[in-house]
Hints:
The chain is α+β, with helices and mostly antiparallel strands. 27% of the residues lie in helices and 37% in strands.
Amino acid sequence: MSEADEIKKLKDLFDEGAITEEEYENKKKTLLDGEVKSSKTKWLIVGLLIFGLISLLPSSDDSGPSSSSSSSSSSSSSSSSSSSSSKDWGSCTLSSYGSLSSQTLDGYGDNIITWNGNGGIMSFKHTGSGYVGVTTYGINGEYIDLLVNEAGTYSGNHLFGIWVGEEVSEFEIEADGGWEISLKSVFSGSKKVSGTSISGKGADVINATSACEYNKIQISHNGDGYFGVWGISPKSLFPEDLLVNEVGSYSGVVRLPEDFELIVIEANGSWQIDFKK
């Protein structure tokens, strides 16, 4: 019978009134003390056996294979550490933003274009001399975003409708001259990075997945209007990160958000981006 069974039996006798509480506690203590001593004895025997086995192991003179194994383990650990530390900062593959068949429309003056497709990139050109604006609205007529807000001749590329809850239903165009609007998928409409630098003029959307190993960019802008740069990382908790928010000429180095895919630029002058580590 185990100590637990004996203690249970004592408890039954105590509950039945066959023994007093003092007798119950004393006998229980005796049983538990015996169990502890027995346990200590078992562990002492195990310890002696382990010590005996250790004494049978090869001495330091036979440590060649062990050293080699240690070296191999160290090398493996180093390799694993190196592999872990070389993880790309950005996303090397473009997320799926939905399919979109490219469409181009042109017109003159004010107009409203109905759109019930996926989000993507809008390329817009204007040849007038006055104000030109392009605003997006949702399915219930709610305002979503002001994509273009300029005067005179204009050309630029803008990201639209890629976020949940911001599906575009209409493009409202305000213009005093001729215009052309082209709607493309993010993949086909974005500007691709070749090497470690890219340059352009005006508003644009850059597919930076080929530069995913870099975590910083050096940016320069030569213009007299607003200059803004955003890092887009859909897989991140904060998918839109404003990196630069200036007016006029600019030069600086900023950190890219982790898992970045796209870089969005708002500018009225020429700009250049160099990727750095």
